[in-house]
Design goal:
Elements lengths: L1 H24 L18 E6 L5 E12 L2 E8 L2 E7 L5 E4 L2 E4 L3 H11 L2 H4 L2
């Protein structure tokens, strides 16, 4: 009986260690609740590669008029960020920082934003 208990305990311990090691190798990405994951955004439009080599996408349903300009959600390599464009500058603001439209992808996105129906009523 003592041998059986030792074998069962050893088997259980080995199983737990194997499962723990397997679970530790799996990485899950949980996006913040306020920002949707890029795979769940059906209104995404791809604009190309930025000057720094990032893939640039725009959530076309995120365009909103604000007192400071047109607010929008864009994605660099799938990572979301909020921007505001005044359409009077060659770029947009993210918080207090200015992001210049230095690539053709960024300029195309800015042209899309400023040419939208949201901007024409702004």
């Amino acid at each position: 009986m003592r041998h059986l208990t030792t074998v069962l305990a050893g088997t259980l311990l080995a199983c737990l260690l194997t499962e723990t090691a397997a679970i530790a190798q799996v990485r899950y990405y949980c996006p913040p609740a306020s920002m949707p994951s890029i795979s769940y955004v059906p209104s995404l439009r791809y604009f190309g590669i930025t000057a720094r080599g990032n893939h640039l996408d725009l959530d076309t349903n995120s365009l909103q008029r604000t007192s400071g300009g047109i607010a929008f959600t864009y994605y660099l390599n799938g990572n979301p960020d909020y921007g505001v464009a005044t359409c009077r500058e060659d770029g947009w603001r993210v918080g207090r920082s200015f992001v210049p439209a230095t690539s053709s992808a960024a300029r195309s996105m800015l042209n899309y934003i400023c040419g939208s129906r949201v901007s024409s009523s702004w």
